[in-house]
Amino acid sequence: MDFSALPDLASRAFGGGVVHFNDEFFAAADHLVLPDPPGHAPKTFDHKGQVYDGWETRRRREPGHDFAVVRLGAPGVIHGVDIDTAFFTGNYPPFAAVEAVDLPGYPGPAELDAADWIEVLPKSPLKGDGRNLYPVEDRRRFTHVRLTIFPDGGVARLRVHGEAVPDPELLPKVFDVAAAEYGATVVDCSNMFYGHPQRMLMPGLARNMGDGWETSRRRDDSNDWVLVRLAAPAVLRFADLDTSHFKGNAPGWASLTGFDADGVAYPLLTKTALRPDTPHRFAVAKAPQVTQVRLDIFPDGGMARLRLLGRADRDFLRERLGR
C-alpha cells in the first residue's frame, strides 16, 4: 500500500502543531503542518524577504543544523514521511533526518530536549521544489516527531503518514469509530474520481465540495460504495451521513452494511433517501459488534462526511496501544 494514501498524523486538521524549534527567521515553522498544499506568490516581499508558505531558517555561518518538533495531532504508527520542499529551489536543505518519541501528556521544550528520541529516518538527501517520500519501518506508536535539516534552509510541509492509535482512557464510551483521528481508514471503494473517500473520515465540517468523497457520473445500473475499517470493533448506534455542499450531485439514497470479523454481514441502514446539502442522522439497526462498514450510495454522487457512533471494544484499543 502507498503510505502517502494514509492519513497525515501531523496535520493541523487533526490538531497537530509545531511545539519547539531553534529558528524560523524567514518563515514560520507552523506552516509545516498546514493541511492545504503549499502555495507561492513570486516577488512578494516583506521586511525579511520573499514570503514563503513553509518553514525557512536563516543561513548558517557556523557548523550545525536546524530542527522543528511537531506534536502529532493523532498519535500513532508512522508508515512514511513526506518532506515537501515545494517552491524552495536555491534555499532548500540538502539533507534531513526524522526522529520520533512517545511521551505522555503535554511536554514542553525542556522535556522534549531531554527525551530519548528514536531515529526513524536517518540523514537522507532531499531534492528541491518537490516531495521527498521516505518509508518508515519502526512500528511503535509515537506522539511527537523531530525534523532536522542539514545545515539550514526551507521546507514547505512535513507530512507524517500512518495509522492513528488513540489512548482508550481518553475516549468516551460512545464515539465516532469511523473517525480517521482514532484509526479508522478506507480499505476499498468503487470510484473516487473527484475526491478520495478518506476525506469523509476527517475531523470537523467539510469546508467545500472538494473536501469530501465524490464519484464520477454512472452510466449503468449499478451504484457506488466505500468500505471503511473501523477504529475498533464496535456496536453501532447512530450514523451521520452528511451531504453538505453537494447540491446538484448528492446521492439520491444510501444504505449501510456492517461486517463482523468473520465477514458476516448485518444490515444497519436500509436504502434511505438523502437530501442535498444536508447533515442526516439515523439510528442504525441493532446488530452484533462489527469491524467494517460499507456505505452504498445510489446511484452515485458526493458525501462530505461519514460518522458512525458506537461503543468500541476497549480491550482491542488497549491491545493496540500495547497496554
TrEMBL record:
UniProt keyword annotations, A-Z: Hydrolase, Purine metabolism
Pfam entry (one): Allantoicase
GO terms (BP aspect): allantoin catabolic process; purine nucleobase metabolic process
Catalytic activity: allantoate + H2O = (S)-ureidoglycolate + urea
GO molecular function, one term: allantoicase activity
EC top class named in words: hydrolase
Protein name as it appears in the record: Probable allantoicase
Protein source organism: Actinoplanes derwentensis
Taxonomic lineage: Bacteria, Bacillati, Actinomycetota, Actinomycetes, Micromonosporales
Gene behind the chain: alc
